[in-house]
Amino acid sequence: MILESAILHGFEALSEVPSEQLTWLYNECSLLELSDGQLLCSPEEELTGTYFIFSGSCAVCRYQAGIKHEIGVLYSGEITGYLPYSRSYRTSVHIFAKERVKVLVLPLSKTTDMIASHYELTQALVHVMCNRIRYMTSFQLQNEKMTALGKLSAGITHEINNPAAANVRGAAEILNYLRSIPSDIGTLTNRLREDKKRETVVLKLKELEDKVEDERSISLKERTVLELGITEWLEDEGQEDCDELAEKFAEFGVGVDGLKDLSAHFVGNDLCWVLNWIGAFLEAQRTALNIRGASRRISELVQSVKSYTHMDRGTDRQFVDLHSSIMNALMLLEHKLKRLNISFIEDFGLDIPEICAFVGKLNQVWTNLIDNALDAMELTKNGVLSIITRLDKEEVTITIKDNGTGIPEDIRTLIFDPFFTTKEIGKGTGIGLEIVNMIIAQHSGSMEVASVPGNTSFTVRLPIENKQI
């Protein structure tokens, strides 16, 4: 039996375990043989024991969106399955044989005896568990970062694409207007030959400039009334096919009262031409303003990304405006609010001071909590996201609320556990809230959660005076 148990001496993790303990281990194990592709364990079934692979190799796989991804390989001499003092009796991955594999299996029923009587063996297996946790945590943290980066980059790309496309369209429209100027110069000179006519047009342009910059939205009813009024007036002046011209001025909120005085100086084709020219000039101005607005939006997004990633500063603590930090994270998720048609309520306390914090890490807190809230409202009609900040003695409280599906009471205590997630495979990694908890702890803060269907809130408490770590 000593000779047979020598198989276990080949395991690096067991090299310091006394021979008599390895003999006990070998005697208590059963032999499991797997063919290529056969499953050793999976998240769907409880582990049957501790697995000692002494021949062949196994693929460690994770499914995302129904697609199997190999994330590692277990070779001969490695140990997996249930390990002493672990609270989990299920694995978070699928393990398949890559070839013909032989495994020694220590049944779960023998774990208690091992812990009670075989200290060095237990110690060795606990060390294996620590290494496994370290590896899986590192992998999951990297995966979480890539997932978060993917979400943010998709949103930022979408948000930047809209104003960028608007700029392209606007530039094309202005180019068309500019190209028409040479041919208009002669006509404009002839029609505005008299000083009074020139003065009238200049004054009208100045009068209507305010209309161009007015961002007040005009209702469909108001626009219809303005269009009808201009159309009827132009028809009375002998103009035909006036609908398009009337629509152009109505869009700026200009009615017949704002144009009627032109008929005192222009009649017939002159009136029609001048109105079209003024309309084109106003449209060019509006397009230029739209380009300016879209460019500002791109600039704001870039600035939000810069602030969010804290690119221009070191990794030390900095004094941070919590409201700016929250709004930067919210801006990067704005595409999701729009897609889910979610309303946002901002209730910020005016007396919130700056706090000393790891800015980049704090941004991760808001991103995770807001993103989770949005996911919870995905199937909710009239979703509402609320963010409330208050000064409470020596602490600042930040509450993020949603009216989504809520967190069932039986799992509420588990949501901060590593790798626990209620999201479908490929959508959640189960470490977002663990990271949040860890970052808040680094800031000497705390977090509370309250949830019933239709009302879930995460409240973060951060001390105003933080001790340096």
UniProtKB/TrEMBL annotation:
PROSITE patterns: HIS_KIN. It comes from the Bacteria. Keywords: ATP-binding, Nucleotide-binding, Phosphoprotein. InterPro entries: cNMP-bd_dom, cNMP-bd_dom_sf, HATPase_C_sf, HATPase_dom, His_kinase_dom, HisK_dim/P_dom, RmlC-like_jellyroll, Sig_transdc_His_kin-like_C. The keyword ATP-binding applies. One of its GO terms (molecular function) is ATP binding. SUPFAM superfamilies: ATPase domain of HSP90 chaperone/DNA topoisomerase II/histidine kinase (SSF55874), cAMP-binding domain-like (SSF51206). Residues 295-466 form the Histidine kinase domain. Its EC number is 2.7.13.3. It catalyses: ATP + protein L-histidine = ADP + protein N-phospho-L-histidine. CDD domains: CAP_ED, HisKA. It is an enzyme of class 2 (transferase). The keyword Glycosyltransferase does not apply. This is histidine kinase. It comes from Mucilaginibacter gynuensis.
